[in-house]
Design goal:
Layout lengths: L7 H6 L4 E2 L1 E3 L2 E3 L6 E6 L4 E7 L3 H17 L6 H17 L1 H12 L3 H22 L5 E3 L5 E9 L2 E5 L5 H14 L3 E5 L6 H13 L6 E3 L4 H10 L5 E5 L2 H10 L6 E5 L5 E4 L5 H13 L11 E5 L3 H12 L20 H17 L2 E4 L18 E4 L6 H4 L6 E7 L2 H8 L4 E2 L1 E5 L3 H10 L4 E4 L14 E2 L2 E2 L4 H6 L2 E9 L10
Parallel strand pairs: 1-5, 8-9, 8-11, 9-10, 11-12, 13-14, 13-19, 14-17, 16-17, 19-20
Antiparallel strand pairs: 2-3, 4-5, 6-7, 7-23, 12-22, 15-16, 18-21
The structure holds ligand TXE.
Length: about 500
């Protein structure tokens, strides 16, 4: 059976390539025998066909993961789990170029971003491979003759559902800590972008994960995803995606009160004070919103400018935005690629119309690009709105595209108020040369990830997640590892004799 995702040229030529699910150590078809076309968003062409899983397939994967957890995996020493994860990292290093091209081909992002994602993925597997064997747990000084300690144990079967914006990186952020901590997994990529995950599971097979420990199910959220979230045999569900879907997953999880971690949307503020280093702030403002075409949960989609620099800043921003090269990700000159799908592009274009109708001023971009070789892809110009009001939908709602809404403030207090004035709380940044002010403002921003004088850096070592409706729990770092563990208290009596309580 053909599972292997090949290089981009053969994929473009050979749209008959079929990718399969990996369940209980086998590459398999879906129970219903259906398939789904996988599309290159840069030109709308089919690059592969994926078997379409069903709830029944998800159920089989869950049972395989449950069996594997109770028969082999929970007794597998940490050092062996670590070795497997280090092996995954090594194989990824050997095939990094191929993974980056696949990611760009399927997701659309510029190749330089896909290369970064592959590096991050490799580091993530190494980080958690290392963490698996490090000290965990605590001991307590309790009254004699008792001893008390806490150990960390795996939760069991973990269902993991990820979106299309960082298909490979999101897979690593979920799979590496879960496996390091000794869980078995049922993983579902987005139905739009399964190709890099299929390759990753080829590596899992090669390095020799025991049967049933890692399972890949493909297909729609409403069927496969829903089954993972609802199943009574799944002990934890971890999800990254939209806030509306996160809510559905939480509801579905109630049946067995499984553990839930959610990494959801954002409308993150990027606050620039007049004393900031001007060129640095302009640079990061563009990077904050236009990296990955704005399809980033932590995107700096609201730029808050101090009034006195407003005009000069916007002028500089537009001047630079005009130079952004939009094109197919595989073209090395491209700095921004297409949006993920026609449907998503239509959503982003609708928001641009809404912004105009609401009375915001469109100062740059605003259109789909339909010229030349970009005409069949889902390309949207980098877009900038000024003269917004806090109650506008383009200021409040996650657009998840290359659309920047600029707001203005007069004082630090007003900046903080505006920064926090949405339902989200994922990320935020402040640009200023006043160190005290930087910390004052960051301390007041209700968000899980903040930056001072930069935007977007992310580390496998440090926690990632949001306040408010941006999520539940944290990924990455030791926080991300602990989120895949149960805490067990163990008490030991050193004086084994009756206590005579009822004598
Ligand atoms: O994501 P979904 P969509 C935001 C962004 C975007 C919006 C919708 O604003 O415009 O969400 O995007 C699976 N039960 N983000 O629809 O629905 C689905 O199959 C279980 C923010 O593409 O969140 C996919 O694997 N699973 C974001 C995953 O959920 C379900 C990243 C993500 O899909 C399901 C992406 C269900 N009922 C979009 N319905 C971020 N925070 O990074 C869908 N899924």
């Amino acid at each position: 059976m053909e599972n292997v995702v090949r290089d981009e040229q053969s994929m473009e030529e050979e749209a008959t390539l079929v990718v399969h699910m990996y369940i209980d150590g086998q590459w398999v078809e879906g129970a219903a025998g259906e398939t789904r076309d996988i599309v290159n968003p840069a030109n709308g062409r089919t690059i592969a066909t994926a078997v379409e899983g069903t709830a029944e397939d998800a159920g089989r994967a869950i049972q395989a993961a449950k069996r594997a957890f109770y028969t082999t995996w929970w007794d597998t020493p940490a050092i062996e789990r670590a070795k497997l994860l280090f092996d995954v990292a090594r194989k990824l290093e050997e095939r990094g170029d191929e993974f980056a091209k696949t990611e760009t081909l399927n997701n659309g992002k510029p190749l330089r971003e896909a290369i970064f994602d592959v590096y991050d993925t490799i580091s993530c597997f190494k980080y958690y491979a290392g963490l698996a064997t490090k000290p965990h747990g605590q001991t307590y000084e309790v009254p004699d003759p008792q001893q008390a300690m806490v150990v960390r144990e795996p939760i069991g079967v973990c269902g993991q559902i990820v979106p299309w914006n960082y298909p490979l990186m999101m897979a690593a952020w979920k799979l590496a800590p879960a496996l390091a901590a000794g869980n078995t997994v049922v993983f579902k990529p987005s139905e739009l972008t399964p190709l890099s995950a299929v390759k990753l599971f080829e590596i899992f097979e090669e390095v020799g994960f025991p049967r049933g420990v890692v399972n890949l199910v493909l297909g729609a959220g409403a069927t496969v995803g829903q089954e993972i979230a609802a199943s009574h045999d799944v002990d934890k569900v971890a999800f990254t995606g939209g806030t509306a879907t996160g809510r559905k997953i939480m509801e579905a999880s109630l049946g067995n009160l499984k553990k839930v971690s959610l990494e959801l949307g954002g409308k993150s503020p990027n606050v620039v004070f007049a004393d900031a280093d001007f060129d640095t702030a302009v640079d990061y403002a563009l990077f904050g919103i236009f990296a990955n075409q704005g399809q980033v949960c932590s995107a700096g989609s609201r730029l808050l400018l101090e009034e006195s620099i407003h005009d000069a800043f916007i002028e500089a921003l537009i001047k630079k935005a005009k130079t952004i090269q939009v094109g197919p990700g595989l073209d090395q000159r491209s700095q921004m690629g297409p949006l993920i799908s026609e449907a998503h592009m239509e959503k982003v274009l609708r928001y641009i119309e809404i912004g105009k109708q609401e009375g915001a001023t469109l100062v740059h971009g605003g259109k789909r690009i339909t010229e030349g070789k970009l005409k069949d892809g889902y390309f949207v110009e980098p877009t900038i709105f000024t003269n917004t009001r806090p109650d506008m939908r383009i200021v409040q709602e996650e657009i998840f595209g290359p659309v920047l809404a600029i707001q203005t403030f007069k004082s630090e207090e007003e900046a903080i108020h505006l920064a926090n004035d949405t339902i989200y709380g994922l990320a935020g940044a402040v640009f200023t040369n006043d160190v005290s002010r930087a910390f004052r403002v960051v301390k007041r921003i209700r968000a899980g990830i903040t930056w001072i004088n930069s935007y977007h850096p992310t580390y496998n070592e440090a926690p990632w997640g949001g306040y408010k409706q941006s999520g539940h729990g944290r990924e990455l770092g030791t926080f991300g590892y602990e989120a895949y563990t149960e805490v067990k208290q163990i008490n030991n009596n050193l004086k084994v004799e009756p206590i005579g309580w009822f004598d």
